[in-house]
């Protein structure tokens, strides 16, 4: 298939070896930050934060709490997708105030929806809210993976880390956050053998069902 975006998605791969001497430009970093903020989220509530680590000492300390995966040390930056510790009524009200400010939406239009969300979230169990927030984090990482491919940025999506140890090291609990996913970004090393491996996929004819 001859499509620019498909070629880019073929180019990207879960980078196992980054070139430690190649740093992402500020411009590329800004693109990633903007793309994170533009990610679609359920109800637009954005229960997420992105930690961007560039400090070499901290990156080094991440290795043993990331199943010894060297990507977190060698990548230019390590992105950590975090969820808020919870979404409570204060958080929901702030969201609706923001909508009012930015869009000038009249209160009589916003109020019924705000009341509905306040009621709905007050009835949810904390673990259900946590699971819902985690899904939003996965969506954000998926979005950034595609943006990385389009911007010639190498990345490795990672679940292989110890979230509790990350939270401790980066003092995330004090910030009201929980780490959910990790994504080192930068540029692949010339000798990363994974770069040339063929993609292993089940195939469009298998994974897509047309009805
Ligand atoms: C949610 C998620 C978690 C992953 N965790 C890791 C990880 O901890 N370490 C790693 O090297 N690759 C990890 N991967 C990469 C996958 O193994 C990889 O995306 C998959 O094998 C497809 O290969 P490709 O991305 O190179 O096309 C993860 C991918 C996803 C989507």
Tell me what you see in this structure:
This protein has a 4-stranded antiparallel sheet with strand order 1-2-4-3, with helices on both faces. It has a single domain, classed as NADH Oxidase (3-Layer(aba) Sandwich). It has 211 residues and is of the alpha+beta class. The protein is globular, with a radius of gyration of 19 Å. The structure holds flavin mononucleotide.
What are the SSEs and their pairings?
Elements: H1 4-11, H2 26-38, E1 48-53, H3 56-62, H4 71-74, E2 77-84, H5 89-103, H6 107-123, H7 126-150, E3 154-155, H8 163-169, E4 177-186, H9 204-207
Antiparallel strand pairs: 1-2, 2-4, 3-4
Helix pairs in contact: 2-7, 5-6
The structure holds flavin mononucleotide.
Q: What general outline do the C-alpha atoms trace?
A: globular
* Termini separation: 23 Å
Task: Write down the overall mean pLDDT.
Answer: 97
Q: In terms of per-residue confidence, which ranges show pLDDT below 50 for 5 or more consecutive residues?
A: none
Order of strands, widest sheet: 1-2-4-3
Strand residue content: 5-15%
Structural class: alpha+beta
**String of helices and strands:** HHEHHEHHHEHEH
Q: Calculate Rg over CA atoms.
A: 19 Å
**Biggest β-sheet strands, sense, barrel:** 4 strands, antiparallel
Give the total of beta strands: 4
Tally of individual domains: 1
The CATH H-level superfamily is NADH Oxidase
CATH class: Alpha Beta
Ligand roster: flavin mononucleotide
